[in-house]
Specification:
The complex is a heterodimer of chains A (298) and B (50). Chain A is mostly helical. Helices cover 47% and strands 5% of the residues of chain A. Chain A has a three-stranded antiparallel beta sheet with strand order 1-2-3, with no helix packed on it. Classes of the chains: A mainly alpha (298), B mainly alpha (50). Chains A and B meet through helix 3, helix 5, helix 10 and helix 11 of A and helix 1 and helix 2 of B.
Amino acid sequence: MELARKWVQALWFFLANGFWGFPLTGNIYQGPLKIICSPGLNCYSCPAATSYCPIGSLQQLLLGVRFALQSGQFYIGTFVVGSMGMLGAVFGRFICGWACPFGFIQELLHKIPSPKYSIPVPLNWLKYLFLAFFVIILPLVLVDDFGMGKPWFCKYVCPAGTLEAGIPMLILMPDLRSTVGWLYFNKIVILIGFITWSILSSRPFCRTTCPLGAFYALFSRYQLIKLKLNEDNCTKCGACHTVCPVEIKFNETPDSCECVNCMRCMTEACHFGAISVEVAGYPMFGENLNQRKKPAHS
Amino acid sequence: MKKKKFKMRRAPFFLLGFFLILWVIGISLNEPTRVLEQAKSICLECIGIG
């Protein structure tokens, strides 16, 4: 199953970045597919990107909301939030575990042999602050003389944008190199920091910083497709704790907002049919309904 | 052997309906055109250049 997930992640990586004609055009993809919302975090200024990044688009709409309203255009982000919300209501953080290009990159980096460290739990709350302040409040509230805000998360934080768009665009468009300043180097430092952290810890960006992951996490309890704990079958052996890439104890917190639904606990750890995938309350697979609870190992 | 009973969760459908309405409102306000315009252009500020 883990191998299948890797293939699905790779497939989504190439679907989200499927325009390989950019060396010939010398520009980013500008076709009609860019009206489609990328499920995972994937910068739309990446030369190969085929869809729009919901976090980038939402900031762009919010930072110009005053200007738009004054012009009689009600661009307040309903289309983008609606797209994100529908994805979240159906899949929740399955997207993080299966379809996010930047999550995939972090997982590959974590395979590099090195000492591995856990991430302190309080840091998990930071991503909600990034969503609230850097994506919504600051672009909306802090405006210049013309009433325009800034895309705070993209501009000052997003390492995915630096990796997928900042570096490739400088290679693709040499003229841009003269405009590089402290902001670019600041973002390069953030990117290097997250690359290093990803080698040492599992998915640090997803767990501490990603505003899209924070948004999808809000659906953890209510998403249509979700992992379910079948308490009758659980022996509380703790096997699910050992394989979890985001260090949650599934049998204690089955609706955890941190769970990226990678399903490793179900397919690699639990031998008692205690974890299953359910759709709107109905078990789909993973649950052995005939299986009896077995005693914990002594 | 007892047969398990399953209870349908309705919350996902309410959420899906709510966000579908938001999405349709966005389309009726012509927001996709603006999103497409943005996505077609390189946001230099967003990627740390300029």
